[in-house]
Amino acid sequence: MALPWALLLLGEVLAQDAATQGCLLPPAAYNAALGRPASQSSVFPNISIAANAVDGNRDGVWQHGSCARTLTEREPWWSVDLGGRRAVAAVVVKNRQDCCWQRLRGAQVHVGDAPAERGRDNPICGTITDAGPGSLSTVCCAGLPGRYVSILIPGREDALVLCEVEVVLQGCVPLPGGEGLAGGRRGGSRSRQLRATLSPAIAAPNVARGRAVAQSSTLNAISLAVNAVDGNGDADWEHGSCAHTEKELEPWWHVDLGRRHAVYAVTVTNRRDCCWENLLGAQVHVGDSLADHGKRNPVCGAILDTGPGVASTVCCNGLLGRYVSVIIPGREDFLVLCEVEVTAQSCVPPPGAQNMALRRPVAQSSTADRLGSAINAVDGNRDGNWRHGSCSQTEREPEPWWTVDLGRRRAVAAVVVRNRLDCCWHRLKGARVHVGDSLVGYGTNNPVCGTITDTGPGSTSTVCCRGLRGRYVTIAVPGREERLSLCEVEVVEQGCAVLPGAQNVALGRPAAQSSVLDASSGAANAVDGNRDGNWEHGSCAHTTEEPEPWWRVDLGRRHAVYAVVVKNRHDCCWESLKGAEVRVGDSLVDRGRRNPVCGVITDAGPGSLSTVCCAGLQGRYVTVTIPGREETLALCEVEVYGVFPEL
Predict the structure, then answer these.
(1) Mind giving me the DSSP string for 528-576?
(2) What's this model's pTM, rounded to 2 decimal places?
(3) What is the pLDDT of residue 501?
């Protein structure tokens, strides 16, 4: 009777979905417009630039400086570039609350591939009808594809005021540091169609792998809950890599991610050899409670595709929680899970990421012989052959440990561990990575940011710590007698902080700008190595007030750019830099303003130092420009760092 009941459940789920269809946003829905390049038809003086509508601030008081506003004109428009063609689920628009809110009534939201003013030719996904004070309007676009989202007031003369515009994408949203994951069945035709519509997926870490798990019951000795997080997607239950409960009422399984995560997707691999229909209608819950085994946590989706061995991706789009539960609601059944993968924020280090552990002070519980010194694990050499003298190694002992002192408290994004290649690689399995400020217990009392589960010959394991803060990073093998061998340990800082001593490839290079304010404001001032933010001291480049001012440096040859650091003026007029775009490329057409954008400056406080991460974007020219308005451009220093810093 299980299959007929499941088909009835599926019909009920689909009927409910059709009846309640809309574009209600998931908790913590990802905003694809945040910090992206924006433009508008005109700019009301001083504090009303287009970038204000994508600064992440929903403040509806125009005088606070976080609303975009045009002049009063015929059919004013505003547009944001999402950076690539996206399937747009909804656009959320925050209206002004202090005055004149009625102006937004009748504004149209367009999505398509035509930019700027031509955005009026893109398809309309909806019209704003609620224009009350500070209204928050959600316009449903139902997957309408396009690179540009435009808002315009058609058929009348008016001012367009937008205090925030948020763009929510269809399906599994892009991950920070990655692209979109298509929801649904992995490898199925629907998945391929979605992947063709969106940008290609980039691998993101599975934060469930190797974590603590539990289930409502266990069928037998080869059906443990831990099988679903062992990294083995083998869907044949008899091979011993699937979790399997008894047949019972509302069986459940859950994983403890160790701390709260923003969960973007949960991928569940079904059994292939038998009984795959049992999984139909299973719900995925994410939250912080273990009450009723996690069943009271919010539901981020249900599994509806239960073919043999199918891997179903349920989109959670940033739902926050420490626990992920899979439950079969309302019936007696078996729960079989051959793998559960939980995708959260990516921590794959970008090219050239700073290794904070390199040549830092280290210690370990013991040293095997003269070849096994602790310092070998931070010498910058990933050679996995221990006999070559570049691996640390302890004696065989209970719970061996190794630790590195980063010198001060850091926000750790990831720890990368290189295993031994020539022998005995299995010894590293289950080793824990700790980050914290204490040396009690040799650092093993500090929080755990992850466990090493991949221990093949010469394996390189990336353990995601997602900003866990601490001065010490410790690796320890808990609960057993073992040798600890580490052929390299690299610690990556959160963000794209520049490696101390890294070469600034812009220093002293030829620079140009659209105009020069006076004799002490030349373009070369921004590459003179002086970060002094007082313009009167003569170390800032400064244009006249003009439409779309620009500044550019010629690096002399093509570089893969890791980051661009921009120093703002601190004595006056610092807000002028807000919304400035940083572009990298090989073209001088339109003064470099047609090269790809690697980021937008949103922090424009007095003397602000903005690091724009370019993640390897290649080009000879780096251009800083203020788009879409008349402004002065003042740059007190521009530093450009390549992917492979020269020390």
Answers:
(1) SS-----GGGT--EEPPSEES-EEEEEEEEEEEEEEEEEEPPSSS-GGG
(2) 0.46
(3) 64
